[in-house]
Automatic annotation (TrEMBL), chain A:
Keywords: Membrane, Transmembrane, Transmembrane helix. It comes from candidate division KSB3 bacterium. It comes from the Bacteria. Residues 386-395 have a biased composition (Basic and acidic residues). This is Uncharacterized protein.
TrEMBL record, chain B:
The lineage of its organism: Bacteria, candidate division KSB3. GO terms for molecular function: ATP binding; ATP hydrolysis activity. This is AAA domain-containing protein. Belongs to the MoxR family. PANTHER family: MAGNESIUM-CHELATASE SUBUNIT CHLD, MOXR FAMILY PROTEIN. Keywords: ATP-binding, Nucleotide-binding. The keyword Acyltransferase does not apply. Residues 42-186 form the AAA+ ATPase domain. It comes from the Bacteria. InterPro entries: AAA+_ATPase, ATPase_AAA-3, CbbQ/NirQ/NorQ/GpvN, ChlI/MoxR_AAA_lid, P-loop_NTPase.
Length: 505, 337
């Protein structure tokens, strides 16, 4: 067997360098973790007021934990020698000589060129410097190391500021005034809190007051600098009463209009109301409607349960009133007086109109009439007396007889969907009153009951699906290819014509 | 037996000599000559594609003279039959008057076969030739006739005038080791062509290699070492050409219908070994794989209708694939960082 000791020696040199690099990484990561733990300890001491760094056990524990974590990290991210060799091959453009030679040498693979390859690899390795083998990598860890060092320095300076800092002289003065001052970082905040509590004025913040005499009495400060320090504090103090008055005024105004806390949710479900609450609601509605509430308001609890909430009830109110009017009920609501209602009522009607406009939108989509559609108005209780047939003589401009969409009935005529414009039946107009007291006229044809449609879904969807599929099929063929296909068929056509002529000739 | 270093040196020297001899006839086209030589040493067949007048037939004919191989030319036409290529049994009569069948071999029984305009023959005739390429033997009336090694087919086709032709099916075109594109010559090359072809110039080509030497070189080529991570690199390159693979690039997913077959990996590795020897090295590197990627893969990628309609160049896709493979790769699935 051939002696490849020279190659093995070079590999051993590389392995030594790898071990040193591993040790370097281990130490660096250990130091980083120790610094991180030290920084954490400083933060904990400030937050929780516990003394960690004074204990020797803390340092021993931190070191042990750091070594453990660093060791695990280095183990998990360790590189194999083959990876290092591939990296060297790539960086130095050695055409994978080193890695191939190592693989064939260690795995014992056979090849006619094995020895030649190993010799070449050994020559190449012998000419490499340690820096070329394992270049120093300024990893992010180094930057983190620098950041942690800087952070710790800053924290230490904050804790133990040097005497040449201005803060240091003032702190020293404060400490001399307080007999209980100790030489710990906690002394400064303690003395500051003690002096703040000695402030007598309750209206003015203590800190500006505290700053004014201190700023002006600092012996090292000149008169101008003391005035410059004092003036902003004075402005702040003078502004305090004004700000307080403004806040109070705003609060008062809100309370006056009863909107201190605006409700977030709508009115509760009727089922959740107690009997007392229902009676209170009825009374409020009676007052709102000037004691002319329709019988629906006076109905029993079961009827109210059919409504989900106040908004739905108010939305159905005009229909109920209309049905009662048609049936000769003397109790009517003067809809012309609706603009004179309160703001609270206008808000409720805005919700009502919104619900009705949504219903109209859904019903105006239905464009087909079904013979089997039930005559009759809404399924809302008292609307059964309404005449189900659409009256062609109904005056379109009659504002008194407003209908909500979905409550009309068809005459049983079945029409294709594309004949809306020529469809029989009146173009009903519905007048919607909003909180802003504007009227919206919505023309409706082919009204249908809410929730019922005689048009099969498939009939509607089929047309759209066909259109979509045709578009998809077109888009699958690239534009360039369409011309190609067209030209191809044209070419075939020309040849066939020529052949035919030749045959006949 | 020569030491391996001398054998490797012999391959290098042979290539240099072949290139110099061909330069007497062929102007430029150094890359084409190198690819054909690599194909020869790998034991594969080459499909040469180029517009008319670029010297495809001349290159093959000159190569046959230099290599001292039995040369056959088959001009493919639409009426060519398989028997015209393979040969057929003819009825003969001996002295006593009895008749017997005698096999008359076709032009396929050469060593260097030029299949000119292979896409003009019917698929049936193409299949007869391709069977010989794959098996290196011919079966006629149930009798097998082996072909003499080294056996190499150099097929040519014209990329324009595709009407009236029978394009090779993907399954059959995959049997070619390399697809060599001959590009239009440059200004200086055209001047050399004029000097060589329009004047009284008849150079004599010398024999550089013969059959047994080529066979020895083929054996030596297979001995070249290749590391596992280089194999991973070649595998990754081929898998990236498949649109359903996670390695595939966006271009592959958009324009490629079928990627390279396992023959593509074989071509990459074998061709990489020859490329390493020609470069004076004794191992295959990732750079060698990249150098032979285009001739080895360009005919194995099947574009979809969108790619064909938009005129996407397969070489461009291969360049993107090569660029997408991370340089630092070790064993399959693991990227060295």
């Amino acid at each position: 067997m051939r002696d490849n000791s020279a190659f093995e020696q070079e590999l051993a040199r590389l392995k030594r360098g790898m071990r040193l690099a591993t040790l370097h990484h281990l130490l660096l990561r250990t130091l980083l973790i120790v610094l991180g733990l030290y920084t954490l300890a400083i933060g904990l001491e400030w937050l929780v007021a516990v003394n960690l760094r004074g204990e020797v056990a803390f340092y021993l524990l931190a070191l042990a934990l750091a070594l453990l974590l660093a060791g695990i990290s280095v183990f998990l991210t360790r590189k194999r020698i083959i990876d290092i060799l591939i990296d060297i091959d790539t960086r130095l453009a050695l055409h994978d000589r080193l890695s191939t030679a190592y693989e064939y040498h260690t795995a014992g693979k056979a090849s006619t060129f094995k020895n030649l390859l190993i010799d070449e690899a050994q020559q190449a390795l012998s000419h490499l410097t340690p820096k070329q083998m394992l270049p120093p990598n300024v990893a992010p860890l180094y930057r983190l190391f620098a950041v942690l060092i800087a952070l710790n320095l800053v924290l230490l300076l904050v804790e133990h500021p040097p005497e040449f800092w201005p803060q240091a002289s003032r702190t020293a003065q404060d400490e001399s005034q307080s007999p209980e001052t100790t030489d710990t970082p906690k002394a400064a905040p303690t003395s500051e809190v003690r002096e703040n509590t000695a402030t007598t004025s309750a209206d003015l913040p203590p800190k500006p007051q505290e700053e004014i005499p201190n700023a002006s009495h600092t012996p090292d400060m000149s008169q101008n600098s003391s005035l410059a320090t004092r003036n902003p504090a004075l402005k702040n103090v003078q502004g305090q009463p004004r700000e307080t008055a403004q806040d109070a005024d705003a609060g008062t105004r809100l309370e006056d209009i009863g909107l201190r806390e605006l409700p977030v949710q709508q009115s509760p479900q009727f089922q959740q109301l107690s009997t007392e609450e229902r009676n209170t609601l009825r009374n409020a509605l009676n007052q709102m409607l000037h004691d002319q509430a329709p019988p629906v308001i006076e109905d029993e609890r079961a009827t109210l349960d059919q409504r989900q909430n106040l908004e739905e009830m108010l939305a159905a109110l005009p229909d109920d009133l209309t049905s009662e009017e048609e049936s000769g009920d003397p109790l009517q609501v003067d809809r012309q007086n609706s603009p004179n209602q309160d703001e609270g009522q206008s808000e409720q009607e805005a919700n009502t109109s919104q619900n009705r406009s949504d219903n109209e939108t859904s019903s105006s989509v239905a464009q087909n009439r079904d013979d089997e559609r039930k005559p009759g108005g809404s399924g809302r209780g008292n609307a059964s007396n309404r005449d189900g047939d659409a009256d062609p003589d109904r005056d379109l401009a009659d504002e008194d007889s407003a209908f909500a969409a979905g409550h009309g009935t068809s005459d049983g005529q079945k029409l294709p969907p594309n004949t809306l414009d020529t469809a029989d039946g009146p173009a009903l107009q519905d007048n919607i009153l909003s909180a802003r007291q504007e009227q919206y006229t919505v023309p409706i044809r082919s009204v249908t009951q809410i929730g019922e449609s005689s048009l099969p879904e498939e009939e509607v969807v089929r047309v759209y699906r066909q259109e979509l599929e045709s578009i998809l099929h077109k888009d699958e063929i690239p534009l360039n290819y369409r011309e190609y296909i067209k030209n191809y068929f044209l070419l075939i056509g020309i040849r066939e014509d020529q052949t035919t002529h030749a045959t006949t000739d | 037996m020569q030491p391996p270093i001398e054998q490797a040196q012999a391959i290098q020297d042979a290539f240099v000599q072949i290139r110099e001899e061909l330069a007497k006839i062929i102007v430029g086209q150094h890359e084409v000559i190198q690819q054909l030589f690599i194909c020869l040493l790998c034991g594969g067949h080459a499909l040469i594609e180029g517009v008319p007048g670029l010297g495809k037939t001349l290159i093959v004919k000159s190569l046959s003279q230099i290599l001292d191989l039995r040369y056959s030319r088959i001009q493919f036409t639409p009426d060519l039959m398989p028997a015209d290529i393979l040969g057929t049994n003819m009825v003969k009569e001996d002295e006593r008057g009895s008749r017997y069948f005698e096999f008359f071999p076709g032009p396929i029984f050469g060593q260097l076969i030029l299949a000119d305009e292979i896409n003009r023959a019917s698929p049936k005739t193409q299949a007869a030739l391709l069977e010989a390429m794959q098996e290196e033997r011919v079966t006629v009336f149930g009798t097998e006739y082996p072909l003499q090694p080294p056996f190499m087919v150099l097929a040519t086709q014209n990329p324009i005038e595709m009407e009236g032709t029978y394009p090779l099916p993907e399954a059959q075109i995959d049997r070619f080791f390399f697809k060599v594109n001959i590009n239009y010559p440059a200004y200086d090359d055209l001047r050399g062509i004029i000097d060589k072809t329009t004047q009284e110039y008849q150079p004599d080509l010398q024999h550089i290699l013969h059959g047994p030497a080529i066979l020895e070189m083929r054996t030596l080529v297979k001995q070249v070492p290749i590391a596992e991570h280089v194999k991973s690199y070649a595998i990754r390159l081929v898998l990236s050409s498949h649109p359903e693979q996670s390695f595939a690039t966006d271009t592959v997913k958009q324009y490629v219908q079928f990627g390279a077959s396992p023959r593509g990996v074989q071509s990459l590795v074998l061709a990489g070994k020859v490329a390493a020897l020609l470069d004076g090295r004794y191992n295959v590197s990732r750079a060698d794989i990249r150098a032979v990627a285009k001739p080895a893969l360009r005919h194995r990628l099947v574009l979809n209708i969108k790619g064909a309609a938009e005129g996407i160049a397969v070489d461009q896709i291969i360049d993107e694939l090569v660029a997408s493979i991370p340089e630092k790769i070790t064993y399959p699935g693991k990227v060295y960082t």
